[in-house]
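Fold this complex.
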Amino acid sequence: MNQFWKDHGTKILGTVITVLSGLAAGSVVLPPPLNTHAQAIAQWAAFLNFVLGAGVIIRGNTNTQAIAEQAKSKVPPAALVMLAMAMLPLLVGCGTLGLTKPTFNEGVYAAYGTADTIATTTDTLLKAGKIKGSVASNIATQDQNLKTAIDLAKSTYATNQADGANQLQTVTTSLNALTTYLTTLGAPAK
Amino acid sequence: MNPANILLALQILETVWAQAGNIITQVKQAQASGTDLSDAVVGQMATQAGVDIDQLKSDAAAATAAGN
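Structure:
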């Protein structure tokens, strides 16, 4: 039993945290009274995140130089990054799940937020040596194009709401695709 | 499991979580007031995304120039 938790404890805790985080994000678009559970869900996620973090501190290597060296190891980051990024599509995807329909501005806001998170996450991976500069540059270009597409959808919506909403939906799908690409970067960078 | 990778994943999770929290807060505030999100709030997020994308471009160019 102990060996089981040693082998899989981090994965299980991480998965639970991700699911709870996703539920909390999804609660934005859930109708009342379900959305009132968001705070409790967030608290559980924060608590489990603390447990996971404490476990890393207690059992992990606290030597920063060693950690910096290990960060440059050739271990594919895909699984861990996927764990952390799994909730991202929920930021923009809940409207397509039939839960409820967010307003156009809420969708635009979430789309910009996702584009921003893609940029900051990619920068984090780049600085950790997990992806090459060329890969990061490619993602930046795609992210910039999608941000421009959000701008265009917003402009279109001002004169034609149906077309603007359709354009935003397309951008949302593309943001999810870019997020998926980011989470599946399995090849060692160096 | 590599501790550095766990820390990296937590760092990313923290970023994503903060952004999700930000979106939740803004949307709930708007819903509580019975209004849509203002263009100003949406514009702020657009600006932030633009800044962070530019930063990524800059860092990616620097990494490429350094042979990384």
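The mean pLDDT of chain B is 87.
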